[in-house]
Amino acid sequence: MIGSTASGSDRVPTLQWNARVNSSKAKNPVATVPGSDKIMLENKVGMIFGVANKRSIAWACADACSKQGAKMAFTYQGERLKENVEKLAGELPDSLVLPCDVTNQAEVDSAFEAVGRKYGKLDFLIHSIAFAPREALEGEFVTTTREAFLSALEISAFSLTQLALGASLLMKEGGSIVTMSYYGAEKVVMNYNVMGVAKAALEASTRYLAADLGKQNIRVNAISAGPINTLSARGVKNMGSLLTYVGERSPLKRNVKASEVGNTALFLVSDLASGITGETIYVDCGYNIMGV
Ligand code: NDP
């Protein structure tokens, strides 16, 4: 059981049971516990794709992982975001900032090479990127152009496979890969359109990658997050109304916080989730369980 001892959900969850501490002798190492003599991601190295600013889900994931001792490399797409990402990453010890537009294979290769050079290994990767042209995120799905379809699927779905391959070469001791999906993958959400199709491909990719990489002890999971007001989300028409609708109808009667998604990513990349792979885990205040 994982529970929060803090009143605010921004705090990192504390384990309520008396867990054993990792031991080199243990056959199935048990993750260590906040508040015990070890931290969850001590000596772990991560790569974070998708920080645009402080509101980004990727940043919430990085923040949670950093509080548990991870060292991380961050990628940014294009010069426009470089300064933002450098400033944020600069707050964390021993971080690295690298350019990486996933449509540019040479940049992807260089990013993994740079991580190999600096840290010598990789333990986890967080894929938190998506793109579709704005005009494809309003109106009817049936009018989606070939160009919009292909770029949405390439950047939002294929990139997971592309990055998983690069990561697997550095994950010599096994590892964990986490991606971000959304309910629009399985049900129709107005205006989400081609991004819903891309998320369906992303969730299927998660399962296929998990099946392939499991023999290297690399786990691959998706988080299906509830709507959060970020830069990308604002590209979806009527996002404000969606937030209100979901907040009113979810069992917890509110929208999920980025920090709650970050904490789930922390769990998934830690040894606590060592038996979980190929799953899509909802972090949406329960919205997905509701019928009428
Ligand atoms: P952000 O805008 O903060 O993050 C999206 C990131 O994707 C940006 O850093 C963006 O860079 C990057 N990106 C876009 N195209 C490329 C590319 N070609 N190469 C590399 N990076 C690229 O939004 P979120 O934090 O909301 O989004 C993160 C993930 O979470 C996405 O997969 C999103 O679909 C998913 N998600 C979001 C939800 C929400 O409601 N916010 C709900 C459920 C899932 P740039 O700004 O330069 O385009």
What does this protein look like?
With 292 residues, the chain is of the alpha/beta class. It has one domain: Rossmann fold (3-Layer(aba) Sandwich), CATH 3.40.50. It is built from 7 helices and 9 strands; from the N terminus they run βββαβαβαβαβαβααβ. Strands 5-4-3-6-7-8-9 form a 7-stranded parallel sheet, sandwiched between helices. Strands 1-2 form a two-stranded antiparallel sheet. β7, α5 and β8 form a beta-alpha-beta unit. The longest helix has 25 residues. The protein is globular, with a radius of gyration of 18 Å. The site of NADPH dihydro-nicotinamide-adenine-dinucleotide phosphate has 27 residues, from α1 and β7.
Features:
single chain; alpha/beta; Rossmann fold; 7-stranded parallel sheet; two-stranded antiparallel ribbon; 36% helix; globular; disordered N terminus; binds NADPH dihydro-nicotinamide-adenine-dinucleotide phosphate
CATH architecture, by name, is: 3-Layer(aba) Sandwich
Bound molecules: NADPH dihydro-nicotinamide-adenine-dinucleotide phosphate
- The percent of residues in helical segments reads 25-40%
How widely separated are the two ends?
30 Å
Largest sheet entry: 7 strands, parallel
- Write down the Rg: 18 Å
Assign the structural class, choosing from mainly alpha, mainly beta, alpha/beta, alpha+beta, or little secondary structure: alpha/beta
According to CATH, the fold-level topology is Rossmann fold
Corresponding CATH superfamily: NAD(P)-binding Rossmann-like Domain
List the uncertain runs: 1-31
Number of domains: 1
H/E series, N to C?
Answer: EEEHEHEHEHEHEHHE
Mean pLDDT: 90
The CATH C-level name is: Alpha Beta
How many strand elements? 9
% residues in beta strands:
5-15%
Number of helices: 7
Shape: globular
Spatial strand arrangement across the major sheet: 5-4-3-6-7-8-9
